[in-house]
Amino acid sequence: MLPKQSPLNLPAKLKAHVQQHSIITRSPGRINLIGEHTDYNEGYVLPAAIDKAAYLSLTPRQDQTIVLHALDLGEVFRVPMGEIKKIPGSWTNYILGVVDQFIQRGIAVPGFEAALVADIPLGAGLSSSAAVECATAMALNEWLATGLDKLTLVKMSQMAEHAYAGVQCGIMDQFASMFGKKDHVIRLDCRSLQYEYVPFLTKGIRIVLMDTQIKHSLASSEYNTRRQQCDLGVSLIRKHHPEVSSLRDVTREMLDEFVLQKDPLIYHRCQYVVEENGRLLEACEDLRKGDLRSFGSKLFVTHEGLSHLYQVSCEELDFLVDHVRNNPSVLGARMMGGGFGGCTLNLVREEAVDELIHSASRAYLDFSGQELKAYMASIEDGTSRIS
Ligand code: GLA
Question: How do residues 205-215 score in pLDDT, each as one tens digit?
Fold first, then answer.
């Protein structure tokens, strides 16, 4: 049994669905400071869980039916346990995909009712889907007393995303949601899955997320394409270096020798990943020294790589990063997450936050005709059972 927190902070909408035997879990969204598109290349990432979360209440039923309530959408979905399946584009995938993972492990899942509510902005690249998966995985694990450890729940949540949502994502989002720690970033080695909590002491600095509100439908297909392109780069090098198993093992020299001539596009994709891994390690050194200025400058370099080499940005993200680039109160900024929309992450001096949001909002409205949404993020603990 996990320690229980006070249920007092429960979102009001959820309270109506909570009964005596309900299990309630909370699982946060995530940010990622640096190390983008490196997780599925066995590289490093530096994410953290944030103060915006999904809440799930699970109540056992007497029959073999699953009833799901998406309270924010006002939708209800029912399915007999034996008939669960993925539904393209549906929010139900994030819950049913996890149920399916339990069943695949030979664990019998009886009927239940689940109600879901979240204050993570949807489609903003803050991993609301991973949060729902982890909230579901922990609730089922507690209810069924399966005793699976947190890392197993993370892997099951990731597999749910692959099998039900159709995105061949890496492990970062689910790991960050589950393992997040207040005021720390997680330096995760996605090959060994060893991790270290690095204090993120940002006195006087705020993390500001600027949401383009763009969600390109090509995001998931392009994401899967990037994975394949990285694999192709690895296979070109493996012909000469059989010891290489992922881009983690690849050097710039290998790319120059074996990929550049053959396929310049693949070269650029791989170049970005190889450089990003090195950049992350240096950025961790900056954090250790407390040099946030140097840390922040690397975020801008990452953005350039994501925009020009990896090509997962879009004009709205580029615009927002360009807008803050020469502002001395902004230590660093970049697009964050899978790309093609979502948020930029900005490290901003506290006293300049209001003015920055004001000027960015005005500029973004002129540029795109859309209101900019800005959120402040603080770093909080990961998934927990709250009742
Ligand atoms: C998405 C995926 C993650 C990761 C990022 C890019 O958020 O779910 O696994 O690959 O994109 O860093």
Answer: 999 999 999 98
Residue of minimum CA distance from atom 11 in ligand 1: 338
User: Best mutation site among 173, 231, 246, 303 for ligand 1, i.e. most ligand atoms within 8 A of its Cβ?
Assistant: 173
Amino acid identity, position 333: A
Q: Which of 39-43, 71-75, 216-220 has the lowest mean pLDDT?
A: 216-220
Which atom from ligand 1 is nearest to the alpha carbon of 45?
A: 12
Please work out whether the CB of residue 233 comes within 6 Å of at least one atom of ligand 1: no
Say yes or no: CB of residue 276 within 6 Å of ligand 1. no
Q: Which CATH number fits domain 205-377: 3.30.70.890, 1.20.120.1730, 1.20.1050.10, 3.30.390.10?
A: 3.30.70.890
Separation CA 209–CA 196 (nearest Å): 24
User: How far away, in angstroms, is 182 Cα from ligand 1 center?
Assistant: 21
Closest atom of ligand 1 to CA, residue 161: 8
Instruction: Decide if domain 4-200+381-386 falls under CATH 3.40.630.30.
Output: no
Q: Is 337 in the pocket of ligand 1 (CB under 6 A)?
A: yes
Known catalytic residue: 173?
yes
Residue nearest to atom 1 of ligand 1 (CA): 338
Give strand pairing partners of 32.
47
Find, among 274, 223, 347, 354, the residue nearest to 43 by Cα.
274
pLDDT tens digits along 168-204: 999 999 999 999 999 999 999 999 999 999 999 778 9
CB of 37 within 6 A of ligand 1: the answer is yes
Substitution site in 46, 122, 223, 313 for ligand 1 pocket (most atoms within 8 Å of beta carbon): 223
Select from 174, 272, 102 the least CA-distant residue to 280: 272
d(CA 153, CA 174): 9
The rounded distance, in Å, linking the Cα atoms of 160 and 145 is 20
pLDDT digits (tens, 9 = 90+) for 39-72: 999 999 999 999 999 999 999 999 999 999 999 9
- Residue ranges of domains in the chain: 4-200+381-386, 205-377
What is the signed CA dihedral for 38, 40, 44, 48, rounded to 10 degrees?
90
Nearest to 25 by CA among 210, 233, 178: 178
